[in-house]
Amino acid sequence: MTVGSAERRFLSSRAGRGYLVYLAFCALLSAAVGFGFWIISLEWFKAHKSEEKLIALRLVDAFVGDYSNIRGQFGANAPVPATFRAHAIEEFNKRSGSKDEFKLRWVGRQGREITTGPTDARMARTIESFAGKRNPQPFSELLTVDGQLAFRTIYPSYAHQQSCVDCHSQLQPSANWQLNDLMGAFAIDVPAGQFLSVLRLQAGGLALALFLALAFIGYLIARQQFRQTADREAAHAELGRVQSFLDAVI
Question: Is the pTM of this model over 0.70?
Answer without folding.
Answer: no
